[in-house]
């Protein structure tokens, strides 16, 4: 006869098994870190917008997953050889992906309310501004909410994302103030595309 503690343990496992039995295992594409854990939000944004897992990037570059995690979550800057490899693979210069001022401060954005990124933003039409889209994904922000908080029409914000439109300097300043990342990084896709 099981003791009362063993019986309680059996019942707990029974409830856990009933909850998950027959539902399969769902593995998330990216773990959801707390915002204070991400030191290099730009690198994570580019990876999320391109649907590249940290382990995939590590495998592609021939480095350990721990190294790539350190780049994203601890803000470490890779050595010259790996820095060149990651920049070439992702198609951005090192001053965009590994900007020391951004990784050193890594400020948390001030969103007035909770929000949720909608996957349909990526599936409706191609995204030209990967960094800005990826930042919305990193912070789990909907396009409508961000445009409302920045006092910009949602259609205008969608143009920035999907068409890679470079906004006016005043709108760039608003985006820089909200995301707390320099505008030359936020709109690097537009600038690099034009040059």
UniProtKB/TrEMBL annotation:
Record domain HTH cro/C1-type: where: 43-97
Give the superkingdom in one word: Bacteria
Q: Which InterPro entries match?
A: Cro/C1-type_HTH (IPR001387), Lambda_DNA-bd_dom_sf (IPR010982)
Q: Which SUPFAM superfamilies match?
A: lambda repressor-like DNA-binding domains (SSF47413)
Pfam families membership: HTH_3
The protein in question is named Helix-turn-helix transcriptional regulator
């Amino acid at each position: 006869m099981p003791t009362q503690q063993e019986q309680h343990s059996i019942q707990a496992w029974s409830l856990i098994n009933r909850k998950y039995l027959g539902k399969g295992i769902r593995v998330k594409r990216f773990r959801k870190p707390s915002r204070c854990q991400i030191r290099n939000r730009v690198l994570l944004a580019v990876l999320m917008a391109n649907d590249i897992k940290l382990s995939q990037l590590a495998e592609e570059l021939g480095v350990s997953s721990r190294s790539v995690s350190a780049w994203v979550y601890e803000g470490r800057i890779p050595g010259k050889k790996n820095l060149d490899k990651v920049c070439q693979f992702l198609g951005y210069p090192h001053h965009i992906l590994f900007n020391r001022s951004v990784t050193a401060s890594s400020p948390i954005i001030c969103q007035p309310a909770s929000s949720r990124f909608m996957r349909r933003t990526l599936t409706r039409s191609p995204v030209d501004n990967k960094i800005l889209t990826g930042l919305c994904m990193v912070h789990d922000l909907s396009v409508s909410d961000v445009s409302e908080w920045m006092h910009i029409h949602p259609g205008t914000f969608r143009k920035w994302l999907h068409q890679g439109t470079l906004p006016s300097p005043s709108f760039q300043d608003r985006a820089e103030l909200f995301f707390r990342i320099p505008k030359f990084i936020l709109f690097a896709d537009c600038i690099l595309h034009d040059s």
